[in-house]
Request: fold
Amino acid sequence: MMEARLSEINNQKSNITNLYGCDKSQKSEPMRVAVLRGGVGREREVSLESGRCVAEALRQGGVDVVTSDIRPDDMAILARKDIDVFFLALHGEFGEDGQLQQVFEDRGLVYTGCGPEASRLAFDKMASKRLFAAGGVAVPSVVEFAPGDDSAGLDGQLKKFGERFVVKPIRQGSSVGVHVVKSRSEAVAAACQVRDEFGDCMVESFITGREVTVGVLDRQPLPIIEIRSKTGFYDYQAKYIDDRTEYLFDTIEDETVRTRIAEAAMTCFDALGCRDFSRIDFIVSEDGTPYALEANTIPGFTTHSLLPKAAAKLGIPMSELCVRIVRTTAAKRQGKKV
Reply:
């Protein structure tokens, strides 16, 4: 079993290495990269930290880096003619929802990550869940609670969901606004609160199981990470502040289940039309079924973040990961040898 697992990891590393052209003996022309961070969404602080970590990693890799705290009313950085690649480290609104990506497309600029449509679809949790389900991936039962909907009607719809629920905004990330509740009355109250605060809301059935995530790097699934929060819920505190949260590899012993998770991640990636990299989150039920929760088209790049952890598991440190992303982006979008 151990030899098989080591072989699997080595094969993954070889695939990623070949795709990203990491022959360190090759010399490339100097590249200037603009790291965009901050923005205007509720995940601004996380985005600032992601951008700081990316910029530091790129500089360690010998890349000429500039940074910009970009906003809808200040996009002057996009007019610079000396930027080869824009590295998007923006999370949430105006970073991950397709708006900024459309600006790049309209201006013909080279940027990392998914395009406008994939970003928009992934950011909309209801739209993405429909696509996941259409692709044959299991998703939790869900009901949308839109402005104008009646709370009594919501209570009636939830009767078939059990007695535990997850209430969340449809278009937010980093577990912003998410509530885990243990009764229909609590779910209805939380849904009213979320809808009033964010303008939209969805209520999912709570799936008992193990929380895992799968990074996808240029169409290659990375090692599965199991997340174990000390509070029992992987919320904003557990993600970015609590150092007790555990991120574990090699905890899914059943090879069939591992394969199902990896295949489900790729199905979700393709259903959205993703490119370059993304991260797909799942709950794996007791019978080994991976239930897709959401896709992150600009996953975090902080010290707590999971895509860099998964890459590091394959022997790809943060600096090498970020340099490879910008080099590959330039090669794909410009047809440029890098």
Q: What stands out?
A: The longest strand covers residues 209-217.
